[in-house]
Structures are given as C-alpha cells and as structure tokens.
User: Fold these one by one.
Assistant:
Number 1:
Amino acid sequence: MRCRTVRKFLNRYVDHELSDVKTSSSLKEHLEACFRCKTELDALLLLKGALAGKERAQAPQDFLEGLKKRLMPEPQIIRLRWVVDMGSISKRLIPVPAIVMIIMAILLFGQIDKEQAVRGEALFGLNSEELLNINF
Amino acid sequence: MEVNSEDFSLIDRFTQGDQEAFAMLVKKYQDYAFNIAYSLAGTHHGAEDIAQEAFVKVYQNISSFERKSSFSTWLYRIVINSAYNYIKRQKKYTGLEYDPQPLDARKISLERLEHKDKQDIIKRSIEKLPFKYRTVLVLKDIEGLSYFDIARVLQCSIGTVESRLSRARVMLKKILEPILRKDGQI
C-alpha cells in the first residue's frame, strides 16, 4: 500500500470505520514500516484523544423549569402586553380629541364675540364697528 | 443510534396529551442536547438557550416526527440547527468570523497547563473552526457517533461526513500545531 492510499484511509482507521479486513491489515503493515505515516497517525490519535477527553457539559438543575416557563408564558405577561398595546393605541388616538376640542373652543369663542357685539348694539344704538372705535 | 421503542412510547403518550411524558423525554436527553450545544456555541448561557429552543421545537413539531429515524437523531438535528441560528445571531452582534489563526505557542504549553486550562484550549480551538466542520468533529470525537449516524443527523452522505471530518482535523491540527510542536507531541 502506498502512503497516499494510507493517508486516504487514515481517518476511517482511527475511527474504527474501516470494515474491509484486507485493507485494514495492509494499512497496519504500512504503518509499522513508514515513519511519516506513523507520525500522521499519532497526530490524529492525539487530537482525537484530546477531544474525547473533553469534559461533558451538563444541563443546569433548573433546565426543565426554564423550559416550562418558555413553553407556557404567564398570563400576566399577556395582560401586560395587552395594556402596552392599548397604550400605543391611546397614544395614537390622543391628538383626535385634542383637535376636536380646539375646533370647539374656536367656534365657542367666535359665538361669544358675536353675542357681545349684538348686546353692545342694543345698549348704545351703535353697530359693532362703531363700538370697537369708541375711545374711552 | 438505535431506534428506541421507549422513546416512541413516550412520544405516543405526549401526543395523546400526557405532559409528563414530554418532561421524561426532556430529562432523558437534556444533557446530550446541552453538551452538543455547549461544544458548538462555547458558552453555558448559549448552550442553555440553544437546548431549550430545540426542545421548544420538539414540543411544537412532535406530530411532524415521522419515526424514520430514532428520536435522538431527530433531536440532534434540531439542536444543530438551533445552534447554527444562535451563532449566526451572535455573529451579527459581535462580528466574529472563522479565525484560522493558530494559537500562540509562546504563551501556552499543554504539558504545563492545568486540566481546566487544557479544556479551555480545546474548546477555543474548536470554536475557531467553521460551523460545518465543527459539527462533524463534535458529533464524531465528542459524542462518539458513527459515520452512518452523523450522515443521518446532517442529512448528507457518508462520503461527505468523511471528507468534512478529515478537513476539520487538518484545520484543528493547524490551530493546535504550534503548541503540540513545542511540547514535542508531533
């Protein structure tokens, strides 16, 4: 077996994925004789060993409780969202009554001015323009 | 990964409305899911987020599980997809990309390092790999899955698994080479 072929099968060899017995035994023979391929094999085994020795991380004790919370949001949160939604709607609607009130105020003051002018005419026998020109 | 009839019976109970059966499934697989997520994401906080998101997807999509593979194969696939999405989101915020730079051998010597620091170097080296190479390496060398099982999880051919694994190990060797060479291990 040539070095190139050995390198091709090296990963399978270290992973015990080489099912063909004949290929496996010729690979072993080559590795015993070839220093460079043996060095390559050692490096692979070193890496594999380092990774296999990596400590396994464990889920925290309250993992399931956290998951349950994620799956079932509390009703309070829903209610709060509803309030927030209502808030944003009310924010959008605030200018509408304000504008209506301003228009009503303008109309009301206009009406009062007219009434006052009419009252002045009645008292002094003057029209509204003459009343305005009176110099006290 | 063999088809586990106990898992299928828990899934049957869960689909019939038994919430306790779902809790049992979670308890059985939470550490597997968490460890894969941790190996891919690199932080406990990230791993918890990924693993929980994966179980939420299981909860919501259990009816679409066709039972052509084992439950664990399906779960691993969901965890890996969740991890991919999480890392993509993190990259968006942090701008971190694949960094093939070898570790600085002047500062590190594996032989002199404490066990905890060794673990940290291995973790950092894995994080330097692009996601698709990191995934096969984690599934093979940390989880100990066979090429066939990895191919089923990743929905690709065994040949693809083999070539990705080979490439991942070459990359990892390059990253760790200065340290291993300094220690005379290669």
Number 2:
Amino acid sequence: MLFRRGDPQRDRFERMAETAFPSVLGTALRLTRNREDANDLAQEAFVRAYEAFDRFDGRNFKAWLLRILTNLYINRYRKQMRTGTTASLDVDTAPDPAAPESEEPDHLVFDNLLSGEVEEALARVAEPFRVAVLLSDIEGLTYEEIAQALEVPIGTVRSRIARGRAALRKELAEFALREGYLREGDFE
Amino acid sequence: MNDISELMSAYLDGELDAKETERAQALLAQDPRAQTAYEEAKQMKSLVLAKCAPIEDPQLWKVVRSRFDEMDRAKRSEAFVGRYAWGLCALFVVAILSAAFMNRIGAGRSVSQAQVASFFSQVQNAGLRQAPRSADIADVVGMPFQQAPVRIPSRQCALEGVGQGTVDGRRAVLLRFVDEAGPFALLMFQGADRIHGMEVSGERNSDFVGGRLNGHPYLAWTENDFTMLLVGDRPTSELFDLAATLRR
C-alpha cells in the first residue's frame, strides 16, 4: 500500500520513519560495518516498510522496522558477504562469542561514525551475540521483539544477550576500568 | 556461560516471569556470584548505551524520502494503467478499426494507376469499334455515360472509335479522337475520385492533374462523380485547351 505526499498515511509513515531513521541506520552500520552496505540496507528496509505499512500492527514501529532490517540483512546481505569463517546467526553453539579474526573491523571500512573503543569492541563480538546486544541495549527492544526479528526462541535471545555482554566485558575490561564502569575487584 | 549470568542479565532487562524474578532476587540477596554477574551486566548495558549512539544522516534521509516519492509515482502510474487498461485497449482497437474503415472507404473511392494503365492498354490492343457520328455522348457509349460532363467536339475533331471495359470493377470507356494535331483519347469511368500512384509531372491545379500514362502525356480531372483522362502526345497546354472544349 503506497500513499502520496500530503496523504495522512504517508505523512504518518514519514514521521515515524524519520524518528526511527537514526536507529535503523546505526543498526545497519553495526551489522554490516561498511558504510555503503549500511546505506543500501537501511534504504531497502525503509522501502520494504513503506510497501508493507498497511500490515504494521500499530505497536512498536521501530521494532517493526528493525525486524525488517535484520531479516533483510540475514536473507540478503549476509549471503553476499558471507565467507567461510563468518559466524552464523543461526548457530547458537558458538563456543566463544568473540568474533573470528577475519571478522574484526580493522580491515573494514568502519568510518568515524562508529569510532571509539566500545564500538570497536562491539564489532569484535561475534555476530549472533552482537546483534542481540545492540537490539537490546542500544535500541531497547524487548526479548520478544528481538526473538521475532531474529526468528529465534526467546530463550536463545536471553542466552545470546548474556553471552554477548560477557564477551564485550572481556573485550572492554581495560577501558571499563579506566572509565570507571568497572572496579578493580570486579575483573576476574 | 552459566545459568546465574543469564538469569541476572535477563533480570536486569526485566524479562523474567514472576517465579524467575523471585529466584533472581533471592540469589542476588545471598549469592556473591549473582551480585557480580548482575553488576557486570548492568555496567556493560550502561556502557553500550552511553557510547553507541544512533547515527544521524540527513542526506541519506532525503534520499530515502525521494525513494518514497518514486514509489508513489510508480504506483500511481500502475494504478492508472490498471484501472483504465481495458479502456485504453478498447480505444486502441477502435482507433485501428476506424483507421481501417476510413482506409476502406477511401480505397472504395480510388483506383490504382496500374488498373487505369491496364485498361488503356487492353482496350487499345483489342481494337476499337466504330462509333456512330454524334455529338451526344449518350448516343456513343450509352448508360451511364450520358451523364458524363463532357461533350464530343465534333467540329474540332473526329471520333474514330470506342472501346469499353472495366477499371477496378467500374465500367469504363475510351473514346479515340483525331484532330489537326493528331490522335488523342478520352478515358472515362465513374465512382472514383482518386487514382493512386498516378505519375504527376508539372501541371497541376485545383481542377487538373497532369502526368504520363504508359508513356503518353495526360491530363486528368474529376467532375460529377466521373473521372476523365485526356491522353495525347502533345504539349500539356494543348491538352488543357482540349479539356476546356470537352467539358460542358
């Protein structure tokens, strides 16, 4: 269902989309870790959302958009970018949530939009755990919304978030101590 | 990853049911491992929230909006075509049929140069019959040519012979005359006002079309539903004079 500019539905969609836009672009960047791919992914997600706006259930627009975005990423972009060493979103038995070396961001176009130790540490967390953490902690989605977006059970989401946070803590131990997020005694 | 870490992480996010919440609170109250796990999860959540902001990009948002506009335009075009497709098709068919009909009507009122030339040759080859001496065309060729808007200028020329046949199914006659300048012929048929492909060379005005038929100069005109061709090996100006004499 599409609408013309000035149509109340089109205006409503545009208002909500504009509000959610920074979250969608941020998530796209943190998923792809490549500016060009992120722009394409975000645009495609908005196009899909606009086409399907009549099917939006009216609850959480941002969660709905992020669900479209992650599905699109899983179905399309990840297939294109997949290499033999890339962790799969479908694998929950990954022994270590730290990303394999080839997935580390230093050789990717990871522009200054996502600079900083936390962003870099997050990028080093293996994809299934990183996605769960960023949807939960940055975007504020509920476990149910994340489960719908990733098409996995809620128990899996719970496990991925806990493991993702633990992996991130390992990556950020020094930084967290320095910034005062962790105390000396907290770090094992 | 142990059960306590998962439990504390989910407790932090407010994602436990009542029974699990009770268990998490009990553990937090008495188990140092649970307290550490809870604090760590809380610190990481705060850190990520504080350091990883959403990304603004007004330029890209403009691009996205322009894509909405494009989609709207495309959809409107599709909707228009979808809604009026049958109408457009019907209009198209009507236009084609009308053009064909008009062409048919037009074709019905015209003959081709080849048909005229063929009649001209056939009649001459078959030989002409002797014509009665009369200034009245009806006496010479009969119906329906008594209506033809020409008269035989018996003072200026002599009628040598008459030939009959058809041009595109229309009855046609050829009268052969001779005058001081030599022989000439008058070819007539009814029911056509155009001759397709007739070679036109030079002389042309609102009444006459001039050209060559089987290599002979001619002057053609239509009048009262009759088409007349005056054919003779002489200058066009003389053919004009002859035509003026013949026309009533």
